């Protein structure tokens, strides 16, 4: 499985790319996680990534141009078929069935918001689905993205044993043939 992550703080992801079950999956080539920072796509000397909302309102939003350019770079790296996910409070709440559905995709691009979120124009033009990990406030989308990566990676054949995947009554009933998706 390939996962692209758009984040202002990609270094936070070392917790899952270097350690534990997901770290072993990366090390063994079962999971590939790549990162893009919108700061790398800015055009000013301050590498500005936030601005006031276009229509007015409180707070700051992630700017359209650097975020959109980072998404396009991730889409180019992913090739065909990548699903773009924005981790947001108003998204569909992540549960085991949702994890199963997301795990059925071989390529995901995860957008980690910061500040008051991202400009709505990015959501309307670049995002396929919005997902939330719960009804509470976090400082950004990195922790939800790590939660999603950890949960979907357990469905990649060879990452964890079948007993782990089906423990506690959680199984992918709808997507029983996941191993066929990841066969070489």
UniProtKB/TrEMBL annotation:
Origin superkingdom: Bacteria
Keywords: Cytoplasm, Methyltransferase, S-adenosyl-L-methionine, Transferase, tRNA processing
UniProt cross-references to Pfam families, sorted A to Z: tRNA_m1G_MT
Enzyme class: transferase
Compartments it resides in: Cytoplasm
Positions of the tRNA methyltransferase TRMD/TRM10-type domain: 1-162
Major subcellular site: cytoplasm
Catalytic activity: guanosine(37) in tRNA + S-adenosyl-L-methionine = N(1)-methylguanosine(37) in tRNA + S-adenosyl-L-homocysteine + H(+)
EC number: 2.1.1.228
One GO location term (cellular component): cytosol
GO molecular function ontology, one term from the record: tRNA (guanine(37)-N1)-methyltransferase activity
GO biological process, one term: tRNA N1-guanine methylation
Residues at which S-adenosyl-L-methionine binds: 113, 133-138
Oligomer and partners: Homodimer.
Function: Specifically methylates guanosine-37 in various tRNAs.
Similarity comment text for this entry: Belongs to the RNA methyltransferase TrmD family.
The protein's name in its UniProt record: tRNA (guanine-N(1)-)-methyltransferase
Native source organism of the sequence: Budvicia aquatica
